[in-house]
Amino acid sequence: MTFNEWAKAIHELAIEKGWWDEPREFGTVVALCHSELSEALEEYRNDRPMLYVENLLGDDRITDPAFFRAHEKPEGIAAEMVDCMIRILDYLGKEKVDVDQVLRLKFNYNRLRPYRNGGKKC
């Protein structure tokens, strides 16, 4: 799927699940994105895998997605980072932004920038 298709599907699911029953302020959307990134940082600080599900039969975590079952919630750094992407795509889908176009424009612009954008530290 394209980013536009993902944005549309994600936003439709968010509506279906009741997340847009009340209008959201832009600041709330940003705070929700930030909370997902904070959760990713906590996973990293706790030395958790990129992606896992809790093994309900023991203490180990299952890290091979081939063994995940549909009802199990994916956890880990990657899962939280993707949660942030889902929040972003939900909002952009609501606003009917051409995500593919904006991504292409930003990527092409960034290709023209100098190494480390001319000397930035981070």
Explain how this protein is built.
The chain is 57% helix and 3% strand. It is built from five helices and two strands; from the N terminus they run ααββααα. The chain has helices at residues 3-16, 26-45, 77-94, 99-112, 116-119; strands at 53-54, 61-62. β1 and β2 form a beta hairpin. α1 crosses α3 (77-94) and α2 packs antiparallel against α3. The chain is globular. The model has no long low-confidence stretch (mean pLDDT 94).
List the domain count as a whole number. Answer: 1
Number of helices: 5
Count every beta strand, where a strand is a DSSP E run of 2 or more residues: 2
Rounded to the nearest angstrom, the distance between the terminal CA atoms is 32 Å
Shape: globular
Q: Sheet with the most strands?
A: 2 strands, antiparallel
Fraction of residues in H or I helices: 55-70%
- Order the strands across the largest sheet as they lie in space: 1-2
Query: What is the overall pLDDT average?
Result: 94
**What is the radius of gyration computed over CA atoms, rounded to a whole number of angstroms?**
17 Å
What is the string of helix and strand elements?
Answer: HHEEHHH
Q: Look at the helices and sheets and give the structural class.
A: mainly alpha
Poorly predicted runs of 5 or more residues: none
Write the layout of secondary structure elements.
Layout: H1 3-16, H2 26-45, E1 53-54, E2 61-62, H3 77-94, H4 99-112, H5 116-119
Antiparallel strand pairs: 1-2
Helix pairs in contact: 1-3, 2-3
